[in-house]
Each structure stands twice: as C-alpha cells, then as structure tokens.
Amino acid sequence: MTDHEKQIDDFGKNDDFWLFGYGSLIWKPPPHYDQRIPGYIQGYVRRFWQASEDHRGTPEAPGRVVTLIDRAHWDTLTDHHASPIKTWGAAYHIPREKVSEVREYLDIREINGYSIQFTPFHPAISSTTPSSPSPSPSPSPINCLVYIGLPSNPQFLGPQDPQQLAAHIIKSKGPSGENREYLYLLEEGLKGLSVESGDEHVADLVRRARDIERLEEQGQKKEEDKEIEGDGNAGDDEVGDKLHRVGSTEEQEEVEK
C-alpha cells in the first residue's frame, strides 16, 4: 500500500473526515454531513474541462462538468479566462460512524474520471458584527479530501473555446438532468458562499449560455409567427375562394334567368 493509499484508508478514523465540494457538491451536498463551512482552497483552478458520461451527458454525447487543475500545470496552458487565487467552495464534515457509507456514495457519484486528493481548506472569515467591530481571526486550515479529474484521466479535455463550450453545455443532458442546469446552479451556489466567491470562468459561460438561449427563443418565436402568418393567409385564400364560387353561381343563375 502506498502512502497515498494509506492516507485515504485512514482518513476520517479520528472523526476528521472533511470533504471539499467545488462543483455540484456545493448545491447538492453529501448525505449525513453535520457541518457545512464555506471557504476556499489555493493552488488550483476550476474549469469546465471534464467530460461527463454518467450525470450531465451520455457515453455517446458527454456533457461538461468542472474539475480542478493544479495551478502550476494550468500556467503552462492557453486559457481564455483568468483565474482568482482562491477557489471557493464548501467543506462538509462527515461523522465517523457514517464515513464508510458516505465514501461508498461518493465513489459512485464521482467515479467518472475523478480520483481522491487532499488539500488544505481555508474557512471563510466571519463578518464583523456591532458587538464585535473587528474581524474574527483567521481560522486554521482544515485538511480536506477532494475528488479531482486529473489531466491524466481519460475524461479530461483541456482548454476549450468558451463559446463552443457554452453551446455544448446548452445542448447536453444526461441521467442527472440538463447540463445547463448544472452550470446555472453552480453559479448560484458560488454566489451564496461569500461576497468574493464569484468565478469569472463560470460567470462568462453563464452569460454565453443565456445569450444562446435568447437567440434560440427568438428563432423559435419567428418560426411560430411565420406559421401563424401562413395559417392566416391560407384562411384568407379559402374565404376568397368561397366568395368567388358564390359569385360565380349567382352569375350563372342570372344568365339562366
């Protein structure tokens, strides 16, 4: 057993099982947690660069979900978005008696290309109150388990054009629902963590996806208007034809008289 495997095996035995969520875990937490703390990690970059064949896509048409890229590796790549120093998310504490059950749940949920890593998590500093005008001291970092789709995993896609990525997210869906729902819920979840927890990569994809939706709605409305207009013209032709037939009959009757 390697040191990393031993660390995974021993993690949580001292009632210290903390899980860091940076994607769907922010709005869809694991079962049995008894504490949830907003905060951030450092040294990583969150990107929609992981293919999803089991949740927001299918093997035939994979969706896109987030993973974390080591910042040192990210610095060697060409990316369309800058990245903040802090990657915000939420940490969940799992009671010792539930660790085995939750681990099994997470291994199934995160099986599609993700592997277990560990990282220091920095809890958000509590805001000041009238009775405590000065900020609270910075809490100590918490060692957290985190599921990451490493660049070596077959579902890792690497840098992608933001417009093409947004369009792909809009059209994708899987057993867990539409891919766009994942994107929109992630942005909402991030906004709820802190005043500084926004992510420009996520926010830009949301803007692009919303624009695509608006254009699709406008195109659909134009098609509907054309159909209505076509039905109206057909009705006018039908009425005119009836009037013409009536007039022709009257003219014939007048001749016969």
From TrEMBL:
UniProt GO molecular function: glutathione specific gamma-glutamylcyclotransferase activity
Sequence segments annotated as region (Disordered): 213-257
Enzyme Commission (EC) number: 4.3.2.7
Keywords associated with the record: Lyase
CDD domains in the cross-refs: GGCT_like (cd06661)
One of the protein's GO biological processes: glutathione catabolic process
Keyword Lyase: yes
GO cellular component: cytoplasm
Start-end of Acidic residues biased regions: 226-239
Start-end of Basic and acidic residues biased regions: 213-225
A family per Pfam: ChaC
Keyword Lyase on entry: yes
Record-given protein name: glutathione-specific gamma-glutamylcyclotransferase
Organism, scientific name: Pleomassaria siparia CBS 279.74
